[in-house]
Amino acid sequence: MDQRKRKQWDKEGIRALRQHLGLTQTELAEELGTRQQTISEWETGMYRPRGASATLLSIVAERSGFKYEAKKERDESN
Q: At what angle are helices 25-32 and 11-21 packed, to 10 degrees?
């Protein structure tokens, strides 16, 4: 598995991206194909986006010109 480009989104980054896009939680959920509750859980830090959701957030951020400092995901093998 390629670890070098894998980023982990935190609650502040997700909220900042949503605000940058000018979307409500419901609107962002519709864009990502998820539930509003999921966006809320990410923004409160209850859960973090993983896998395809994290990748999709990164793509949306890049395409919208959103500058973010996503933390690199820790390599669990160390």
A: 90
Instruction: Write down the CATH superfamily of domain 14-60.
Output: lambda repressor-like DNA-binding domains (1.10.260.40)
* The model's pTM: 0.79
Orientation of helix 36-44 relative to helix 25-32, angle to 10°: 110
Our measurement of the distance from residue 76's CA atom to the centroid of its chain's CA atoms, rounded to an integer in Å, reads 20
What CA–CA distance (Å, rounded) separates 3 from 36?
29
SS3 (DSSP) at 71? strand
CA distances from 36 to 16, 39, 56, 71 (A): 16, 5, 16, 24
The 10s digit of each residue's pLDDT in 37-53 is 999 999 999 999 999 99
* Residue written as token pair 């864009």: 31
The count of other CB atoms within 10 Å of the CB of residue 43 is 19
